[in-house]
Structure formats: C-alpha cells, structure tokens
Amino acid sequence: MSLKLRDLIRQVRACKTAAEERAVIAKESAMIRTAIREEQEHYRHRNVAKLLFMHMLGYPTHFGQLECMKLVASPHFPEKRIGYLGMMLLLSEQADVLMLATNSLKNDLNSENRFISGLALCAIGNLATADMSRDLAPEVDKHLSSGKPYLRKKACLAMARCLTKCPDMAEDFVDRIVSLLNDRSHGVLITVVQLMTRVLVVDDEHRASEGDGADDESACRTAFLRLVPTLVKLLRNLLSMGYSPDHDVGGISDPFLQVQILTLLRLLGADDPRASDEMNDVLAQVATNTETAKNAGNAILYECVQTIMAVEGDDGLRVLAVNILGRFLLNRDNNIRYVALNTLARCVADGSRPSDGGMLPVGDDGGEGGSGGNTAASALQRHRTTVVDCLKDPDISIRQRALELIYHLVNPSNVEDLTAELLNYLVLCPREHRSDICTRVLRVVDSYGPDDRWRVDSLVTMLTIAGRECGTDVQSATAAYVGSSGPDVRAYASHRLLKAVRDDDGGQVGLLNVGVWCVGEYGDLLLEPYSYVPAPVASDGDDAVPDPVTVSFMALDPASVVSTVERVVRRHTCPEGVKQRALTCFVKLRERFAGRADEATLDRLTKLVEEHGGSHCLELQLRSVEYGALINATKGVSVRLPAADGAGGEEEDIFGVTSGGGGAGGTTPVGPEVVKAAREALARMPTVDVKLMQKRREERSGMMT
Fold first, then answer.
1. DSSP per position, 137-154
2. Could you give the CA distance from residue 327 to residue 443 in angstroms, rounded to a whole number?
3. Does residue 158 have a pLDDT over 90?
4. Alpha carbon separation from 461 to 405, 508, 703 (Å, rounded)
5. Could you tell me the pTM of the whole model?
6. Alpha-carbon span 691 to 683, nearest angstrom
7. Above 70 in pLDDT, residue 195?
C-alpha cells in the first residue's frame, strides 16, 4: 500500500543524503505505477498529489499524466481540483494527451458550480493550444457576460490565452471586451485591461507577420482608441478615490489597476498624437500626485514615466518624467536606482522623433541657449552629478548602467569633466571591462575633443591606466593624433610619454608601444626643454580664478633617452612587439642624435640595433640586419655577400651592387649615392599612415551618432 502524502514528505525530509532521497522516491514511484496499472481509483487523487510533490523536487512524473485526465473527468470537486492542478503542472501545451481534456473542459465550463467552471478557465488560460482555443472560445465567451465577477475575471484571462494562440479571432470578440470596461469590480477591470493590452500586442504581431500595411489601423486598435477617454476617466477616479480598505495598498488606491491602465495607454498613445493629447493631463496628474514613500507608488511612477516617453507628449511632460527618474537615483533601494538608470539610458539611446523635443542629441548643461533651458535634454544634464556618483556604488550592476548613461550624456560642453570621471572609473573597474571602456572613451575623445593637446593628454592618461587592456585602435589613434599635430603638441606628447614609460613597470603594453614609437619619431624634441601654460578656467561666480599651473619638462641628454628605452627592452617580460618597435626606435635615434650626441651614445645605439642579428624572432633578426646595413651605409661602408653560386666569382653587396673587388664577407666603401639613399631611408621611416588614421577616426565618430 502506498504512503500518504504527509508520510512521504516526512520520509524525504528525514533523508540525510541525496542517495537516500532518490531511493525513497524510486520506491514510491514504483508503488504509484503499480496502483495505476491496477486501476486503484480510491487512491488516484492521493497518487497525483504525491506526483506533484515529486515534480517539485525535480523527479520525472510523466507516467502520471493520464491519471490527471481521469481526475479531471471525475464528478467530484476535490478530485477535479487535484486533477486540474496536476494537469497544469505536469503537462505542457506540447503534450499529446492534452487533447483528451477538451471534452472535459467543455463540460466543466457549462457546470452550474462556479468553482468547477473556474478550474476549467484556469486550465485554459495556462495550457490551451490553438486547436483547443478555437473549440473552447465560444464557451469562454459565455462567461465574459456571466453575472459572477469570479467567472468574468477568469474568463478574461482565458480569452487572452485563446486570442494569443489564434490572433485572427480577435476582431470577433472586440465588442464583448469593450463592454466589460464598465464593470464595477476592480478584479474584473484589471483582467479586462490585461486582455485589451494582450489583444493589441497580438494583433500588431499578427499584422506584421501577415504583411498588412502599417498605415491602416486594425479594427481592434480603432475600437480601443475610442475608449481612451474612458480609460483616462477611470484612472482619474482612482487618483481621487478616498481610502478603500478593499483596494488600498500602502496608501495607494489599487496600484495594480493603475499600472495596467498606464501600460494600455502607452500602447494606445504610441504614434497617435490625438490619443496622446487626451491622456497628457492625467499623466501629469499621476506624476505629480503619486506618493513615493512606498514601493506601490514607485511602481506607478515608473510605469507613468514609461508611458510619457512612449506617447507623443510635449517636452514639459518629458522634463517631469526625467525629474522623476532623477529622484529615483537618490533612492537608497538599488533596484529603484537600477531601473532609473536603465530607463534613462534607453530613452537617450532610442533617440528623438521628429515631432517632439526628444532626448537626443543631448543638449548642453541646462543653459538657456540652444533649444532652451527647460527641455528634457537639459533636465537630464541637471542630474549628471547624481549619475556620476553612481560610478562609486559598490553594486557592479549600478556602475555599469551609470557608465552606459554617461556615454550618452557627453557633449562638447561637458566632455572634459565626464572624460575625467570615466578615466577615474577606469582605475576601479574590473579588468574584463576595461577594453570596452577604452574603446568608448576613444569615441568620445574623437567626437567631442576640444583640441589635439587635450585629446593626446586624455589618451596618454588612458594608456597609463589601462595600456594592458586597450586595443590597437587606441594605440593607433594616439599615434595618429601626435603625428598630425603641431610641433608644440609633439614636444609635449614626447616628454609626457617618455616620463610615463620611465615610471611604468612594464605591464602597460599599449603605453610602451606608443611611447617607444613617439620617442623614435620625435626624440630630438626631448633634447629641448618644454613648458606650457594652460588657459585659465572661466568662473561663473565672484570667486577668484586660481592661476593656471605651468607644465614644464627639463631637457634630456641623449644617453638618458637611450637608457630609458633600453631598460624597457631588457626586461624579460618585454613582448616581441615592443622589442620590434624599440629596434626601429634605436635606428631612428641614431639618425636624429647625429651631431648632437657623443660618439659613445651613437655606438651604443648601433650595438643595440645589431645585437638582434642572431635573434630567434625572424622579424627582429631581419630588421636588425637591414638596419645595420643602413647604418653602415651612412658611414660609407657596405657589407659584401658571397656569390649566389658559391663559387669564387663576382660578389654582390646587400644593396644589390656588384663589384669584383673585396673579399667574401668583407667590407668596401660605397658610392655617395648609396650614402645619400641610406640617410634618406633612415630619415623617412613612417610607421603611421595619417590618412588611414583620419579615415578610422571618421568611422568612430559616425558610430557615436
């Protein structure tokens, strides 16, 4: 004999290991299978109840599906209740045996017992397939006009399922749905509004899949648009309703119904100026009169903001919505703050429509110029400080949402402040996020940077912080900005990068790549002192403006410059890419320091170039031999190579000039034209295609818009 449900629960709870629990479940499952084979009807409801418990624990219970069908067909309510519960939990709409329940469902829908009809409506709302929906929709429709609110609200939810499975039936039930909006029961009103919302969504999806014209409104939408004044009146009545113990939640009158109405208004007001105009006043009333002390009020305000942003409202209403989200950012609840950041970022990213003030492009810092100081864009900028403070939140999800929003807040007037905040956050953020942040900061710098000096300074700072994680696009852009700028910015960048390379421990590979390249290109500028006085910062108040701090760098001697780069190469952790750039740097410095450095430094550079002639890296070995040959050629000396056939015939030098003089592998003077060509080759050794970098910059700027 099988156990009672409470005895099975006790045995499972008494198990100390998973193996013991599996043994208990396996034994009981075997006894249930035996009872099913023997058709033990008086234990059927108990067995299904135990199968539900096993299903909650994650064990297979498919063998009891037919038992649920038999209980549903039972004339007794307790057995029907267990049967319907088992059917809704143990079966899915893909189950073949579900079709066997269609006749039982139809009979129960016509039952005089409202609770039995309610069970059938619940099952239809959860499991109805397309075929079942077509067969049972007329029976469900009868309950939409039932005199019992208990059945009307369940019928609305069941009809929502039927119309979801069969969208082509929606127009047949529009009139019935419209008439239910005058119901006095709040429970029925909630389900009716949910049904209308579902019909709109399903109808739009069905029309899109059928390829119907977007300009022609469907019959469902046309009928529902006529109800906008009724919905507005219903929402206004809820706002002005006094205390009602049946519907009050946290001091708010029926917040569930208010949220559902706002959701429906959002769908009806989208791309419809007339409907939007009818609901503007009530939306403003909801936004200003709803209390935020409890979660119920915050839920209504959030839905109200969603509706305001979706409908064709005026810009004053959008300002109100942005201010509500700004108050959410000050809330101590992280869930509310996350919702506010996510909504703001989505509203900004979605952009503006031509018919309204919109959120993009984001305006300046709330000034009175441009489009005016009372716009949604300026209202968003007024909450900029609060958004930036969210970057310091311990919750990583809050920081990520705030970071996403800050990217959209950047404009030419605040780019310096927000870029500084992004660079500060770059120090604290997880390493796996740094690469994406570097790419985004590069786009910001490209699009809104005030001048080349600031761009170079920001990118060098970013390389100093996250040179290990930044991509090649950041390194290339930094080199391009330095290469395309004037001599003053080049001198500043060279001194700044050399100092950063000297202070680095070898981990910031991106910084080393750019720094070594810049030293090789503009090493002669390091031999001169440099000073720069920043422009004074304008002050809006009466406070005295502090004098700008002069940025100055001392002149360096060639030996110290060479030592800094050599120290980078000598590290055992130095990557091959940095060594290759350093090799090019040495040969360039050899040319640029000629006449300004002593012979010891020049010989040292020559040795640094030639010491990679036996490197295991083919690229280093090849470049070392080539650069060594160029350096020797500038001295008027060429290296002879043996003849290709290995015989003692005519020899060829590395520049392809044949001559009968000199021994194999020896040296011989070269002509003046070779010396001139070698010097020009060392002087003109570009590593950056500025035109290509400019093209990539324009592409990144296009991604920001």
1. HHHHHHHHT-S-HHHHHH
2. 30
3. yes
4. 22, 12, 23
5. 0.75
6. 20
7. yes
